[in-house]
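thought: user wants a sequence for this fold. calling inverse folding tool.
action: design(structure=
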C-alpha cells in the first residue's frame, strides 16, 4: 500500500476524498434548503435567526471547500454536476414548496434543516479527530466550526419546539 506525504495511504486518501466530496455536495443542497427556509420565515419573528444561520451555512460550506483543498482533495470536475443537481433540488423546496408557515410542510422543512446541520456537525467531529494526526486540518478552526454547528442545532431545535404546537393543535381550544 502506497503512503502519501499526508501520512495516509492512497486508499485512505481516496476514502477521505469521497467522504469530503459527499459533504460538499450535501453542503450545496443545505445552502439552498436554508435559502428556501429564509423565504418561508421572512415575515416571522424568527426571520433574522434563519437568515443568520443561512449566512453561517454558506461560510461553513466555504470552510469545507478550503479544508478539502488544503488536503489536496478538491472536488473533481466529474462530481461537480452532482453538487449542482443537489443544489437545484434543494432550491425547489422539496419539503415546503409553497413556503407555508403552518402544518406538516413547515415541520418537515425545519426537520430537514436540523438533519442538514446534524450531518455537518458529524463532519466537523470527524475532522476534529483527524486533526490530531493531520497538520493540514487545523484543530482550532474545526473546533470553532463544530461549536457553531452545535449552536445552530440548538437554535433550530428550539424553533421547532416553540412552533410545533401552533402547527398541530387547534388554537381555538
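)
observation: tool returned 173 residues.
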Amino acid at each position: 500500500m502506497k503512503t502519501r506525504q499526508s501520512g495516509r495511504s492512497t486508499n485512505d486518501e481516496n476514502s477521505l476524498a469521497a467522504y469530503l466530496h459527499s459533504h460538499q455536495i450535501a453542503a450545496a443542497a443545505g445552502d439552498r434548503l436554508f435559502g428556501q427556509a429564509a423565504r418561508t420565515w421572512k415575515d416571522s419573528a424568527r426571520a433574522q435567526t434563519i437568515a443568520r444561520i443561512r449566512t453561517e451555512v454558506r461560510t461553513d460550506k466555504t470552510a469545507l471547500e478550503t479544508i478539502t483543498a488544503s488536503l489536496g482533495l478538491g472536488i473533481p470536475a466529474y462530481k461537480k454536476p452532482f453538487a449542482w443537481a443537489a443544489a437545484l433540488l434543494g432550491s425547489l423546496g422539496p419539503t415546503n414548496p409553497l413556503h407555508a408557515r403552518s402544518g406538516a410542510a413547515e415541520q418537515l422543512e425545519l426537520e430537514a434543516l436540523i438533519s442538514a446541520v446534524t450531518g455537518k456537525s458529524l463532519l466537523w467531529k470527524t475532522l476534529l479527530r483527524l486533526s490530531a494526526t493531520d497538520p493540514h486540518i487545523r484543530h482550532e478552526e474545526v473546533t470553532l466550526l463544530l461549536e457553531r454547528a452545535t449552536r445552530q442545532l440548538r437554535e433550530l431545535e428550539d424553533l421547532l419546539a416553540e412552533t410545533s404546537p401552533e402547527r398541530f393543535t387547534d388554537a381555538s381550544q
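thought: summarizing for user.
answer: Here is the designed sequence. Residues 2 and 8 are 9 Å apart (CA to CA).
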